[in-house]
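Any chance you could type out a protein's amino acid sequence plus the matching backbone structure tokens because I've never seen that pairing?

——
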Amino acid sequence: MVENDASVDGIPDMPANSGADGSTQSGLVLSDVFRALQHSRRRYVLHALAEDGEQTLAELATGVVAWEQDKCPERVTDAEREQCRTSLYHSHVPKLADIGVLDFETGDEILVRATSDERVQAVLGTAGGATDGQGEAHTGHVDA
């Protein structure tokens, strides 16, 4: 089975930034991209970092909870924020960092968009990445 011959909507399953000789800078392949986008929390993190290239883990956790529960970030409780921060820290952020689409500074808990995430952003846009796992629109928050 040759993975490099497959494509989805014109996005070939070959490493990003491939040269004519097949060399790569990031090594990110389409299967990595799909794994990165598999969970709605990871999609939210990637959306947030696409808008603002650097955020703290606490900021992202607040945004995720507000988005998932469709409420203002100011209404997110400390307990909700901490539960989400823990999930991001132990599960989702390491998966994104492992494939190189973000950099995570553990001491300061700062996430930075990596330059190798263009392929992820292309798939997000093509595959309707503006929705979560339940097909709800990614609209930010509602002032209610």
Notes: The longest helix spans residues 78-98.
